[in-house]
Specification:
Number of strands: 6
Helix content: 25-40%
Distance between the termini: 15 Å
Largest sheet: 4 strands, mixed
CATH superfamily: C-terminal domain of ProRS
Length: 75
């Protein structure tokens, strides 16, 4: 039940329609995490320690990101 996404719209759609965990790039700032939480009710559940580095951009801010994190809603 882990779905990788590359955009904020995808993140919201997966949370609304499929649920489960969403694997997405995050810029590492608490401000972005708070905005995503306030807008989607999803929080970061895990920052995988053994995940390979993967260059990308934060799904919300567009800032550089080296890893994906797991977002999910509590039910």
């Amino acid at each position: 039940m882990i779905t990788p996404v590359d955009s904020y719209e995808e993140l919201k759609k997966v949370l609304d329609e499929k649920g489960g965990f969403v694997l997405a790039h995050w810029d590492g700032t608490p401000e972005t995490e708070t905005i995503i939480k306030d807008e989607t009710k999803a929080t970061i559940r895990c920052i995988p320690l053994n995940a390979p580095e993967e260059a990308g951009v934060c799904v919300y801010s567009g800032k550089p990101s080296l890893k994906r994190v797991l977002f999910a809603r509590a039910y």
